[in-house]
UniProtKB/TrEMBL annotation:
CDD domains: CLECT. The keyword 4Fe-4S does not apply. Keywords: Signal. Residues 33-157 form the C-type lectin domain. It comes from Nicrophorus vespilloides. InterPro entries: C-type_lectin-like (IPR001304), C-type_lectin-like/link_sf (IPR016186), CTDL_fold (IPR016187), DC-SIGN_domain-containing (IPR051004). It holds the Pfam family Lectin_C. Residues 1-19 form the signal peptide. PROSITE patterns: C_TYPE_LECTIN_2. This is C-type lectin 37Da-like. SMART domains: CLECT. The keyword Signal applies.
Amino acid sequence: MNCNLVLIVLAACIGSIYCYPPTSDIQTSLHRFNNKTYYIETLAKADFYRSFMFCQKINMRLVTVDSNEEFEKLVELIKKSVSFTHGAEVWTSATDLSVEGSFLWMSTGLPMNVDKWLPKEPNNAANSEHCMAFRNEGDTIGFNDNKCWTENYFICESVPSQC
Ligand SMILES: [Ca+2]
Ligand SMILES: [Ca+2]
């Protein structure tokens, strides 16, 4: 290989590093319906707080569920994205950390306006369940309050700018 060829190959290699944007796993994992864009974490589980912070870090927010239709679509997304067997959970941003029994979406500060709680939930078991997740209860899927430090998959969302 002569020197010119070596230089061309070297330049091409450097160019490939600096001229092409890196492939973003997150960009290719986005799902859209209605006016929202969702990212569901499928590799690493995290507790509620780390899930919340991860979504902020990628300029999204931990998911809110604003309608029964959105609930059903998110259940579809969960089922096709992660292992969602009996007992599995996926974090949302709802929490009653501020006032026991009064769940708000931490991402927006707004109260919940959908009622998809599983039977007998929220039960605040051991007086220590303050974060809400989708849960597969076997014959039904709905919301459960669980301990915030439980490690689950989670969903981030983004909405169009209100500006
Ligand atoms: Ca609670
Ligand atoms: Ca519970």
